[in-house]
Amino acid sequence: MKAVIERIGDPSAVLVLPDRDFLRFSIPSVLLPEECSEGDIITVSLDLDHEATREAHDRVARLIAGLIDP
Asked: What φ, ψ does residue 64 adopt, rounded to 5°?
């Protein structure tokens, strides 16, 4: 999705999503590419990592099992 960099500060930057009713959200400014400036349009991508999620669930299940059945 496309986001407009509304402002860049320390420690965060505010992004606006024009295609999502101008929803605003903040991210750590260190995550922006160095050459970005206010008013630039960037692409934001959020992807679900099924494998990492499964591994995290398995790790927690093992920890819980170790507490219940030491």
From this structure: -65, -45
